C-alpha cells in the first residue's frame, strides 16, 4: 500500500475529477491520501473530501495565503481545531510554514507576518498534541528555530512531515532529530534534480515519506516544459494516481523494489502521522501491501516529455 502524504485533491484543477482521480489512485494501490488545508476557505472542503474518500486531512494556513489572512483567520483555525480534534480523520496541523522564495513574501513586513502566523499555528499544534505538515522553501533554519522555541515553551511539537524537502544534510538531520519525516515526490523524478536525488539516496530509510503535492509538482512524465507552455499548453496536472509510478522511479535510485519502498514509506508515514494507522483499509492492515511493482499508465498526456528539465 502507498500513502500520498500530501495531496491537494480539493484544488480547482481537479474540478469534477476529484473522486475519479482518487479511485484511479486506489486501484493502483494508494490506500490513503492526506489533504492539507491552505486557508480558512477550504477547511470544510478538505474535511468533507477526506470523509467522502475514506482519507485524512489537516487544518492550517499555508504561508502563500498569509498575505490575505488576518487574526480572524487564526481564530477560525483555532475554533475549527477545537471542534474537530476528536475527528479521527484530522491527522495534523497543516499546511503551515515559511516561504522565503516568493518575492512578495520576502519583504521584512511579510517575513514577520509569516513568522507570527507560523508560531501561532505551532502553538495550536502543541495545544492539541498534533503533528504538523511543514511547507519549507528557503526557510528550513527558521522553521527549526520556531520548533525549538516551541519546545522551550512547553511540550514539543509532535513531529510531522517537512513537505517537498530540498534542504541541506544538516537541516535534514535537525528535522529528523525533532521527530520529522521528509517528503519527496515528482521533483525527484527528474534526472536534472541532482542535488535532490542525492539527498533522497543519502538519507536514512526511516526519514522518507512520499507525496505528490497534486495538482502541483508534476513528475517528468506529466511535466510540460517552458517552450510548450509558452505555446499555450497548460502545465501537466499531477495526481495521487501518479504516486505508485513516482515511488517505482525513486525506489530504483535507492536499489529497492517498489514494494519494499511502499512498505517502508507507509511505515514512516504512520510514524509521522499516527492517526493514519486507524484509517488504513482493512485489507492493508492485514496484508500491509498491495502489489505495486508495475508502473501503470498515467493520466498525463505528455508521457513522451523529456526527463531533463527540472520543475
Ligand atoms: Zn501543499
Give the topology string: H per helix, E per strand: EHEHEHEHEHEHEHEHHHH
Number of domains: 1
- Number of helical stretches of at least 4 residues: 11
The whole-angstrom Rg is: 18 Å
The overall average pLDDT, rounded, is 92
Task: Report the bound ligands by name, code or SMILES.
Answer: zinc ion
Total DSSP E strands: 8
Helix content: 40-55%
Describe the structure in your own words.
- This protein starts with a strand and ends in a 24-residue tail after the last helix.
- The chain is globular, with a radius of gyration of 18 Å.
- The protein has 11 helices and 8 strands.
- Residues 288-298 and 301-311 have low confidence and may be disordered.
- It has 311 residues and is an alpha/beta fold.
- Helix 3 runs parallel beside helix 4, helix 4 (108-128) crosses helix 5 (140-153) and helix 9 crosses helix 10.
- The structure holds zinc ion.
- Residues 6, 8, 36, 95, 213 line the site of zinc ion.
- InterPro entries: Metal_Hydrolase (IPR032466), TatD-like (IPR001130).
- A divalent metal cation 1 binds at residues 6, 8, 95, 213.
Amino acid at each position: 500500500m502507498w500513502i500520498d502524504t500530501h495531496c491537494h485533491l480539493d484544488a480547482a484543477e481537479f474540478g469534477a475529477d476529484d473522486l475519479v482521480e482518487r479511485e484511479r489512485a486506489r486501484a493502483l494501490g494508494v490506500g490513503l491520501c492526506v489533504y492539507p488545508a491552505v486557508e480558512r476557505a477550504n477547511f470544510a472542503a478538505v474535511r468533507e473530501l477526506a470523509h467522502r474518500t475514506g482519507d485524512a486531512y489537516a487544518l492550517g494556513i499555508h504561508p502563500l495565503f498569509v498575505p490575505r489572512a488576518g487574526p480572524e483567520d487564526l481564530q477560525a483555525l483555532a475554533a475549527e481545531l477545537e471542534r474537530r480534534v476528536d475527528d479521527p480523520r484530522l491527522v495534523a496541523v497543516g499546511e503551515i510554514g515559511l516561504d522565503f522564495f516568493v518575492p512578495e513574501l520576502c519583504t521584512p513586513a511579510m517575513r514577520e507576518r509569516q513568522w507570527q502566523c507560523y508560531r501561532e499555528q505551532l502553538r495550536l499544534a502543541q495545544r492539541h498534541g498534533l503533528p504538523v505538515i511543514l511547507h519549507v522553501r528557503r526557510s528550513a533554519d527558521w522553521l527549526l528555530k520556531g520548533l525549538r522555541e516551541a519546545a522551550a515553551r512547553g511540550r514539543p511539537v509532535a513531529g510531522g512531515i517537512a513537505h517537498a524537502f530540498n534542504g541541506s544534510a544538516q537541516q535534514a538531520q535537525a528535522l529528523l532529530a525533532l521527530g520529522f519525516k521528509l517528503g519527496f515526490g515528482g521533483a525527484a523524478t527528474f534526472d536534472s534534480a541532482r542535488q535532490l536525488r542525492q539527498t533522497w539516496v543519502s538519507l536514512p530509510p526511516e526519514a522518507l515519506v512520499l507525496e505528490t503535492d497534486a495538482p502541483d509538482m508534476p513528475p517528468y512524465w506529466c511535466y510540460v516544459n517552458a517552450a510548450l507552455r509558452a505555446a499555450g499548453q497548460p502545465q501537466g496536472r499531477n495526481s495521487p494516481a501518479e504516486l505508485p509510478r513516482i515511488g517505482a522511479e525513486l525506489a530504483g535510485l535507492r536499489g529497492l523494489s517498489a514494494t519494499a519502498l511502499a512498505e517502508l514509506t507507509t511505515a514512516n508515514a504512520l510514524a509521522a502521522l499516527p492517526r493514519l494507522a486507524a484509517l488504513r483499509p482493512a485489507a492493508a492492515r492485514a496484508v500491509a501491501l498491495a502489489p505495486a511493482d508495475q508502473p501503470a499508465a498515467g493520466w498525463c498526456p505528455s508521457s513522451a516529455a523529456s526527463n531533463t528539465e527540472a520543475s
